[in-house]
Specification:
Oligomer: single chain
CATH superfamily of the domain at 44-91: EF-hand
CATH topology of the domain at 44-91: Recoverin, domain 1
Helix content: 55-70%
Structural class: mainly alpha
Protein name: EF-hand domain-containing protein
Radius of gyration: 14 Å
Order of helices and strands: HHHHH
Number of strands: 0
Number of helices: 5
Distance between the termini: 33 Å
Keywords: Signal
CATH architecture of the domain at 44-91: Orthogonal Bundle
InterPro entries: EF-hand-dom_pair, EF_Hand_1_Ca_BS, EF_hand_dom
GO molecular function, one term: calcium ion binding
Largest sheet: none
Length: about 100
Amino acid sequence: MNYCVVNLQNKAIQACVLGAALAVGAIGTSHAAPASKSEVAPAMSLFDTNHDGSVSPKEASAQGMTAQVFKEADANHDGKLSPQELANAMTTSAPSTGTPKY
């Protein structure tokens, strides 16, 4: 199979997983409870490409997360996102619009 075709299929799958993960965050209010592990797992598998259990700035950027969103999500300021920090980022909404920050 042509690499371009495979790459496009992977991007489509990634977009679906990311969309589903972000929809979880969009459903709640700006003070929603953190997403459950089962809700975060698809997003972690999408973002954590080296499977080390955390999301680096490079991994987040590759999926379109801005540096500002990453910085805000990194609650303990260790330079990586844990599954819980990613879950919190997924459920946090922008106050003025109610839309997900990412």
